[in-house]
Amino acid sequence: MAGRFDPLTRAAVRGGRTTVPVSTGAGAGTAATGGARSREWAPGRGVDLGLTLGPLRRGPGDPTFRTTPDGSVWKTSRTPEGPATLRVALNPRTGTAHAEAWGPGAEWMLDALPALLGDGDDPAAFVPRHRLVHASHRRRPGLRLTRTGLVLESLIPTVLEQKVTSDEAYRAWRRLVCGYGEPAPGPRDGAPQGMYVMPDARTWALIPSWDWHKAGVDAKRSAAIIRCARAANRLEEAAAMELPQAAARLEAVPGIGPWTSAETLQRSNGAADAVTTGDLHLPGIIGFALAGNRDADDAEMLELLAPYVGQRHRAARLVLLAGRVPPRRTPKMPKTDIGRL
């Protein structure tokens, strides 16, 4: 629930919250338009689109993710069947999800709709052990952990986020997707403008070094993405694996460590226990929120999250969404753009 009592802070954005306008009812339950395939699905429990799908958005200008004033979320994906655009909205009276999809991968996207909206997630398995976590959990009954079933879609932007500011990573993602992706399939009227589908694996592998540089991506990150693209088929198999095996599959690629694999599997696999380690800020935020220790390291963070084993990612998200972060005592990490060099 967004508003004055739940401000959209940077921590909340990191926790995966995206503002989705309150549905007017006009976007849900309407007939398919522009040659779309459609589907309705009743979650059987409340789903908050902004909290559930928010982790899939890579910055406010993400060309693969948009929201519209009628309360719809638009998302593009490169599915095993081809590119697709999905529009999903919730009926404000019944809570039923109405989805439309366009493109060769439309059927695949509609089949994946329940998982995308957290059907495989089990929030009942989560038991809050801290007062702050309990309050955050109670205020967000619609939080579900999404599962896209698409590894590369989450892995590549996560690699772009390695050791740079979010703004730098988002800029690189926009530039590369718009430069090497393809315009999103869908209706000419009513769809958000400027949406693109991310490039396929072969195209990622063939991006020349000077365009990586212009996008502000250093050689280490670009090389890791190229290696991932070349092993795309093997990496996509991780979407059907259990968390330890999936993480091992991703981390077999040089340049992919525990931080990157966890951030990826949280989205592709809906992994409720994929806690992020090796992060610059997260241990201090968790330590400060749960124990008043802003200098906590990974070991202390994992100790604090130990009561939530099996649900540690959900617990960390609830802490971030609560917005209790230590006051800043050092300047922000400077933004750089190697593309200007």
Report on this structure.
The protein is α+β, with helices and mostly antiparallel strands. Helices cover 39% and strands 10% of the residues. It has 16 helices and seven strands. A five-stranded antiparallel β-sheet has the order 1-5-4-3-2. It has a two-stranded antiparallel sheet with strand order 6-7. Strand 2 and strand 3 (73-79) form a beta hairpin. Helix 5 crosses helix 16 (312-322), helix 6 (151-160) packs antiparallel against helix 10 (219-230) and helix 14 (282-291) packs across helix 15. The longest helix is centred in the middle third of the chain and has 15 residues, at 166-180. The radius of gyration is 19 Å and the shape is globular.
Q: What does the overall shape look like?
A: globular
Mean pLDDT over the residues: 92
SSE string: HEHEEEEHHHHHEEHHHHHHHHH
Kindly state the number of beta strands: 7
Q: Please identify the structural class as seen in this structure.
A: alpha+beta
In which order are the strands of the major sheet placed? 1-5-4-3-2
Query: Count the helices. How many?
Result: 16
Main sheet makeup: 5 strands, antiparallel
Portion in helices? 25-40%
Radius of gyration: 19 Å
Q: Report strand %.
A: 5-15%
Distance between the amino and carboxyl termini: 43 Å
Which segments are poorly predicted (pLDDT under 50) over 5 or more consecutive residues? 1-5
Quick recap of the structure?
With 341 residues, the protein is α+β, with helices and mostly antiparallel strands. It is 39% helix and 10% strand.
